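Technical appendix A lists one of the benchmark inputs used to test multi-chain prediction within the project. The record comprises two sequence entries:
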Amino acid sequence: MKDLWAGGPPPGERPPSSRAARPLARADDRHGTVLVVDDDTSILDTVSSILAGEGYDVVSASSGQEALDAVALKRPLLILLDMRMPVMDGWAVARALRGRGISVPIIVMTAAESAQRWADEVGAEGYLAKPFGLDELLATVERYRGSGGRPN
Amino acid sequence: MVPRSVSCWLARSIESPDLNALDLISTVTQLIYVLIFISVALRAVRQPTRAHGDMTLFFGAVALIILTSRVAALIGASAPWLTTVEVAVLMALPYILLRLVDDFTHVRSAVKRGAELGLAVGIIATYATAPTLPTPVILYVVFYFFAVSIYCAIAFIRSARRSRGVTRRRMEAISLGSILLGTDILIAGLTPLAQPDDRAVLQALGQLLGLGSGVAYYLGFAPPAILRRAWQEPELRAFLARAASLPRLPATLDIVRELERGAANSTGTAARIGLWQDETAKLRFWEDDGNTVDVEPGTHFAGRAFELQRPIFSTNPVRDNPDGAANYRARNIGAVLAAPITAGERRLGVLTLSAERPPIFAVSDIELASLLADQAAVILESRALIDHAARVRAREEATRLKEDFLSAAAHDLKTPLTTVVAQAEFLERRATRDPGAPADIDGIRRVVRESKRLAGLVGDLLDATRLEQGRLVGEREPVDIATLAQEVCSHDASAPNVCQVEASAPVVGVYDRRRVEQLLQNLVENAKKYSPEQTPIKVKVWQEDGEARVAVEDSGIGIPAADLPRIFERFSRASNVDDRRFHGMGLGLFICRGIVEEHGGRIWVESEVGRGSTFHVALPIADGRRLN
């Protein structure tokens, strides 16, 4: 876990193999922290309460800045990130994280048609296209949680 | 012989057997006059009008004098009767010129009678005293000729001032010719009275004046085409310079007016343009008083010119178009020229020129009118192209707006839908897994709230669609807006903003209650949405000038001035609104405007960024029905 948060060189200077070299999440760490970021409080509360109900340790943030603070504080294993937010949007959050050398997996949440492209743009591991159902949400979270980018 | 000296201004070469420079000038002058005679005579045959007849008469008289002089020279002697005929014809010349002046401008009848009397007196005096004309008679004849010529010259100049283009130049040339001719006669008449030493000089001067008058008359009465085009150019250039910016004028009627003005200026006539209307299959003219006149093809001059696709010219409109006789008499119109405005195969309309008197040079005016009509066609056609391009752009814009709308609407619907779907599924799973567990009241509330939000969005979308079809407002009934505002204001008392209604009396009109309520609700919710918490929202209701007035005032973020004109348009949101913080499709105010306008009212907003906004509504109170 430690080197996931160790900072390190900027993204461009990182050796391409660094991600693969990171250790996988421990097998028994099934219910690690998941950070949910969305400015729409209904979605934020819904997703958070569902994940919490499924046994995840959930931290929620309703803005980009809150998300960055939460990352620094809680060191989540996975971030569910809404893209269109006021002041600091999903792209800015992803950029800030990468700039700090933090490569926690991100799942983009968006209602836009271009979900896949946006996910690629921010180097996210996957995306959840709104409106998503319960199974889709849980399966996606389970697949990418703590994977360091590779599905478990 | 003295009369000979008067007439010899045209036949001087016969006087001297030596062919010197002066003789050459004299011969050239004679040739020019004969040429002009042939030219105007041919024209008179083609277009037998009074003006053409008088022109032929004038130059015919001159040609006759030249001819008789030449004949006299050939037979070696001059018969006395020939001389007297010459003198009579010569004396008649200025009178014919005066008739010519009368053909295109008005000569007072006193002047005409005076000239006739003077002519009669001159002829009688000449015959009475022939063959030895005393000096007073010669002086009388010479001054009569001079005076009438100069009068005509002045009349031509004044007429030229009122004319434009080729006609003006030709009038000026004729005026110059008349001055030169009159002066030439004066000098020819005075030469025998002068000192013998001065006679040669005067004779030379007379020859030059004669040539000058010939050339000036030639340019005036029979100008070559190249000169006509050159004279037309400044007028056309001025017209085109003005015309270049015309296609971009806001309305087609503005363009028509400018073209009419341009044509009127260029021709010195009254100009009207009629445009072909596909819907009515008629030509439409716009009067100054705002009325329109429709002309069927084939009727009147305009309709005939349009149907035949060639200019129609009439010097007697009352006779040629009896249907319009009353109009021509009322407006004192003595000549009408109609030229079709056609761009390629597209028949656009007709240019009609009307004047009090027929133009003296109809051919020039028809040419100019056709040129102007062609230019008008180019301008109107470019206008049509601009309109077409604008329509295409508007269509593309509408398509783009629709796509934007669909994607925005989809986006806005998906957000609440996410909560509804995921939360409801989760509630179901919980209830299935553990039937005895307490209800997740927060989750249930979220589903309810987001379902309502969905319903609201769907309602807005439906309203926007109804609005576009103009059937937003339904059944109407007497509604007290003050009471309604009170209900709307106290509807959501839990909101962090205080809503206050200020109304001193009921304000009752006939409206669609549900829609007016929706209007007030939208405005109040808007005010709450964009205002800091705890700041008051004021709703003022009063009656003013037969209108129910409502003002919804907030101290919110305000609307930037640049956004104000578009704020009531579909999907329009002020640029300082963060559309992630404030949810909505930008349909609220669009629907508000629709409700107000379908009631025949007005809606507007006053706003200052950072200070707040006041939305004003005025609804007719007497009858809520749409006025138009």
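Residues 324 and 450 of chain B are 73 Å apart (CA to CA). Confidence is low (pLDDT under 50) at residues 1-17, 624-628 of chain B. Comparable benchmark entries are summarised in Table A2.
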